[in-house]
Structure formats: C-alpha cells, structure tokens
Q: What sequence folds into this?
C-alpha cells in the first residue's frame, strides 16, 4: 500500500510539472501525439483530455455487460468533440478476448471477467502485453417475470437446482407450483456465464448446460424477452438489463440479500463482480486516440455508470487504474 501511495505521489508530481503553466486559461499542446492533453484537468491523477484534438479510429469488442457503459462513454466522448469512429461490438467477453488476443483486431477488449493466463499468453504471442483497467462493478441479476407470483428470493443451493437438475419449480421448494422451469441464460462466450458457473457451480458448467428447457443467447435482450413472457421462466444477466426492464421483471434476493450500492461494493451480494477494459502497452503508445479515450473513460466513468445500471468501482480501485495509465504513458507525456 505504501508503495502504491508513493508511486501516486511521484506520478502526480510529474503530471503537475507537465501540465502546470501559471495561467488560468485552458492550454493545450500545440503538436505531437499527445496534443489532446490540456492543463485544466478535472481529475486529481489524470491529465485533462480535449476530445476535439483526438483523431484516429478506435475498435473495441467484448462483454455485452460492459457494452452499455462503453457505449455511454463513447457517446460523451463524441459529444465533446471527438470526430473519429469508435466501434463497440457486443459479442461476449470470451469472443472479445479472441479478437484481441488471437486475431489482434481490436484496440480495447471489454470484459466482465478477468483475462485468463492462457489468453494473456496468446496475446503476448502476437506482440501484445495486456493491460487491465477496472472501471466499475456489476451485479448479476437473477430474474423472473412480473407474472411470477411465487418467487421473490432464492438461496445459493436453490439457484444450483433452478439452473440444473430441477425439472419443476416444486422440485426447488414444495410450496412453488408444479410447473416446468423455463431457463434463459447467456451463451458460453459470455463472461456472465463464466462468472455464474464459477460462483454457483464451482467452475463446472455441465450441470447447467445439461438442464432441461434451456435457451441460450449472447444477446441479453433476447433473454429479457423470453423471461418476461412466461410466469415460469427464469434467467440471469447483467444488472443494467434488469434495470432497463424492471417494469416487466423481478430480481430475486440471494440468501436474503438484495443488490444495492452497499451490498455490491462490500461483496455481501453473492453475484457482484468487477468490470474491465483491456488494452496493451504498445497500443497505448502507438495509438494516442486509444490512450486518450481510456484516460477520458477513467476520468468520467463514475459520472455515467449509475445511469446505465452499474455500480461505481471503489475509489482506491479506480485510482489504481488511473495510476497505471500514468505509469504506462509517462514517457509519452514528456514529449
């Protein structure tokens, strides 16, 4: 911890010497790859970013959970003057890592789970050294239709039954109806799927994949439509999709705990998890537009994250991501 604080102080001192100029007027670098840096930073760690000065396209892909947040940040970046193109493909964390680590097609990989060691190794094989930035926290919502009049909560053990070998709702609780369970879950490329399997089934996906009446999709909107249409349907996805459709859906308490800012932040809500952006050191240095967008993202993410249904990352976690950006960009910032 002391080393982290010391590093932050060193970087802040360096940043001050770079951006301070004794004038109250907004000043920008007149040339160079970091001409988008301004003196009037609104952040205690990162430099100010002027989107009007950022050029070049940005390609991102990955988690459907992170997608709404990245889309919101891209909209704000454009609204403040960025004139390039930001592509954001919602294809699942696993598929996003394939495009980033194997094909080398994307600049940023959005993820709702950490990158695996095997994926990082593949990235290094194509000359990419992965860099992780935590940008927020998500709660996976287990939901039923508003037409469901019996299920309001479930224990972890009951979730195991609901999403595996229980055929009827009465197999989970005798007071629940003798009606077949209809299951709607994310596809296997989804980080949400991986996280749920790891948390509920201890990384063994077979019980869930072998469940009856199972429909899978990488598109969370398809899952929402399936669940809201039947009183006996159940499924799970990122909290933001529940929030968008809360008039049609009911979120279940888990072990008596409801998802909230407090329970997600302190981890008492069972299905809480961090959200990530991944890029690589060489991309940050070779594509200034990517560096600018990530710095902008980290600066303003907590102003936008609640509006898309997620929870802010803890202050120390977000600060660590900002310090990491400063450390990686220190040489470029001196130019």
A:
């Amino acid at each position: 911890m002391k080393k982290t604080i010391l590093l932050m102080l060193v970087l802040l001192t360096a940043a001050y010497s770079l951006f301070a100029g004794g004038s109250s007027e907004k000043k920008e670098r007149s040339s160079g790859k970091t001409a988008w840096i301004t003196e009037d930073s609104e952040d205690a760690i990162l430099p100010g970013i002027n989107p009007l000065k950022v050029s070049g396209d940005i390609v991102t892909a990955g988690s459907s959970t992170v997608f709404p947040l990245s889309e919101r940040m891209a909209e704000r970046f454009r609204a403040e003057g960025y004139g390039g193109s930001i592509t954001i493909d919602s294809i699942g964390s696993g598929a996003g890592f394939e495009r980033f680590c194997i094909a080398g097609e994307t600049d940023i990989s959005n993820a709702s789970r950490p990158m695996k060691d095997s994926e990082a190794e593949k990235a290094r094989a194509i000359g990419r050294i992965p860099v992780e930035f935590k940008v927020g926290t998500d709660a996976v919502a287990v939901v039923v239709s508003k037409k469901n009049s019996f299920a309001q909560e479930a224990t972890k053990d009951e979730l195991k039954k609901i999403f595996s070998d229980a055929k009827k709702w009465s197999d989970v609780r005798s007071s629940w109806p003798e009606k077949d369970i209809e299951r709607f879950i994310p596809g296997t490329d989804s980080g949400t799927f991986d996280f749920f399997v790891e948390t509920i089934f201890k990384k063994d996906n077979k019980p869930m994949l072998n469940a009856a009446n199972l429909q899978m999709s990488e598109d969370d909107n398809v899952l929402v439509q399936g669940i809201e249409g039947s009183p006996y349907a159940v499924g799970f996805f990122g909290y933001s999709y529940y929030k968008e459709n809360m008039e049609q859906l009911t979120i279940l308490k888990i072990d008596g705990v409801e998802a909230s800012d407090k329970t997600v932040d302190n981890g008492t809500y069972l299905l809480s998890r961090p959200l990530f952006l991944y890029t690589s050191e060489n991309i940050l240095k070779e594509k200034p537009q990517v560096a600018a967008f990530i710095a902008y993202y980290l600066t303003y993410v907590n102003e936008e994250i609640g509006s898309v249904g997620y929870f802010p990352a803890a202050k120390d976690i977000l600060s660590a991501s900002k310090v990491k950006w400063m450390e990686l960009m220190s040489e470029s910032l001196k130019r």
